[in-house]
Structure formats: structure tokens, C-alpha cells
Amino acid sequence: MGLLLHFCKLEKRWQLLQRCDIIFKRHMKKQAVSPTKLAEVGRLLEAKEGKYDTGQLFLHRIFGYRGVILFPWTARVYDRDLHNPRKPTTTTTTATATATPTACTTEASPLRFNEGSGDSSGTVGATQSDDAPTAWNTTNTATDPQSTQSMGTAKPATNANASSSVDAKEVKGKTQTFYQVLIDTRDCPYIRAQTEAVTFLGNQDSNRSLYAIPGLDYVAHDDIMPYSSTDKHPLQHELFDKFLSYAPDAEPPFVGQDTLKAWQEKNHPWLDMSDVHKETTENVRITVIPFYMGCRETPASSVYWWRYCIRLENLGELSVQLRERHWRIFSLSGTLETVRGRGVVGQEPILSPRLPAFQYSSHVSLQAPSGHMWGTFRLEREDGYAFDCKIPPFSLESKPDDVSTPPVGTPTNDDVD
């Protein structure tokens, strides 16, 4: 009997081993269907201290996507950490590599935009929403060593109610180079940022719809990792061949066409970036870049529109998750509005050491030509500690409207009211 029982146990073990073997083979077959492949994209170049030229190929230091530089911008960077000795400042050391970079994929993080209603209070007159196409910002950027000229000061709101929430000290701005770039469409599904961040208003006076041009981004100088490629078509984007042409004797071997210069001059008003604002709280850095979009005239009133791009970046070793947002919006007309809500753009992103950054953009409209915004993000650390991360105050300034016709873009699904 004992021998029979032992035989039965062996038979069951053999059946289990056979079953495990089948499961293992099925798992191997599933992996073989879509194996991970690494493809060479080019050779890394030494980082430059001066400006990169039009046509320079690069990898984004934080998000890892492939891109190409169209033209530079000069922005005033207001870093509040530099004016607060109690806060540690973080800069990056540019590494020089000669190895061959390879294309790789990261976790896809598609962003969806919902109505940013939340609980709002205050005088009606300023409209803000977090339902716009997401965007971008800067991270780990040290001040450009060749750009240290003082360009002015960022002043807080002068309204009595507003000044209680905004630091009263003035922050001097220093110039830094940013770039308008094209993103490789093959990488768009895998980067942790919305790739339709550059938006503009339609021309119809009765239509307040927003339109987006896919695959445009703004990148800080220190986020550029330049590389070279022997491929005549190294980037996939519908505007690549329209803006750039292959010139094997040039360096970089892609030069701007007349169409790029004409496009830049024609659409300068709604592409223009001028100010960048940064502040760090509890090892989480917030960067904000506001853009003026234009004015909508109606017989009853004038409505001024801005978009603002925000990057959240975790500089610490513990993961944090964004839980809530709290905005204050002050208009020159004298109104002050408070907006509260869960997350941003319908998400509560986690900023981990492996995926430390998250980018998005939104829109705000005022019935006045200027105003201010500031606020906090409520963040929760993985050890349970919760804190309010300051959003640096930034100005909303209008500019003379340009009558030039913007390019045809893709309508967004946002109805920002």
C-alpha cells in the first residue's frame, strides 16, 4: 500500500511538472510574439555650453524621446530657490558619452483632460480649467553659464487679498536658452507628457475652440543630449521634411528651409515664450511657463486667454503622489477666484525615482488684460507624509494681437468656459 501511495504521489508530481512545462512554453510563446528590440539611433555627442543649431538631433534628458531643434528662445528664468538660502538648489552635471545610444520605450502615460471644476469660490470673472492638452516644462536645469544677465524682476500681485498668499520679495530673472523642437511621433505613445501641448485659438470670433499642433515641445538647454545620425530621415514627423532639408556637408547635416523661417515669423505671437518660474518644496520642484494666446472680442466684453505649462519633478528618493490642486487667480479687474480639485487633468500622477517627472498644460481666461496666478499642489509621500508644494506665482500679461493666420491644427476636445 505504501508503495502504491508513493507511486501515486510521483504520478501527480509528474503531471504537475508537465503542466508547469506547458505553462512555461506558453509563456515563452507569448514573449516571442512581441519581443523587446533595441535599435541604434545614432552616436551621442559632447554637450555644448553655447546654443545648439537648427537641425540638431537630440534625446530628451528626462523623457528620453528623440527630437530635432527648430529654433532657440531666450527666456527669463525666475528661480525662487536661488533667493531662499534655506532651500537646497539642485543642478545637474552634464555627462559626456561616446557610447551609441539605443532607442527604448518607457511606460506610456496617456493624459486625459476633464473639466477642472472642483470647488470654486470668489468673484466671477476669471475662468480657469485643468482640462487642456497637457504639456511640458524644465527639469534639473542649471543656469546657462553664458546667460547670467539680469532681465528684470518677477513681482507678486499687489491686491491686498492676493499679497497674503504670495511671497513679497522680488525675484531677479536670469536669461536661459530654450528650444522649440519636433518630437518623433514613434516615441509619442511612450513619453510621460502630452505631445499636443502647443495650442492656439481659432480665428472665428464666435468660436472659442482651441486647436493643437501635435509633436511640438519646448526644451531647456540642459535637457538636450545631442547625437548624430547617418540616416537621411532620422525623425518621423509630418513637418520634418517641410522645415528641414538634408545637407551632408553641414554640421548638423539638417538645415532649415525658408518655410521654417516663414512659419516662425508668422506664428511667433502664440509660440512666444518669455518667462519661466521655478520653486522647490520638500524635494519636489514645480516649473511653470505661461503663454499668451490672444483675445476674443465680443460686443459685451473682451476675454483674454493664456495657456500655462507645468512640470512636477521629484528630486528626492521617496515616491510622491499628487492628490489635490489649489489655485488662486487674481485679475486686474479686481476679481480673485479660488479653484480646488482632485489631481490635475483628471489624473493623480505618482512621481517615483524611476519616473520622476510629469508634464501637463492647461488654460485660463480673464476679462482683463493681465493678472496673476499662484497656488499649491497637495502631495502624499509613500511613507504617508502629506504636504503642500508651492506653485510659484506667475504673471499673466497680454500682448498686442497679431492678425496673422495660424496654421491649421487639430481641434482639441476642450471647451474651456
TrEMBL record:
SUPFAM superfamilies recorded: ApaG-like (SSF110069)
Q: Which organism is it from?
A: Drosophila mojavensis (Fruit fly)
Question: GO CC: one term?
Answer: mitochondrial nucleoid
Q: Which PANTHER family match?
A: F-BOX ONLY PROTEIN 3, POLYMERASE DELTA-INTERACTING PROTEIN 2
UniProt GO molecular function: DNA binding
**What name does the UniProt record give this protein?**
ApaG domain-containing protein
Residue stretches of biased makeup (Low complexity): 88-106, 130-145
Matching InterPro entries: ApaG_domain, ApaG_sf, Hemimethylated_DNA-bd_dom
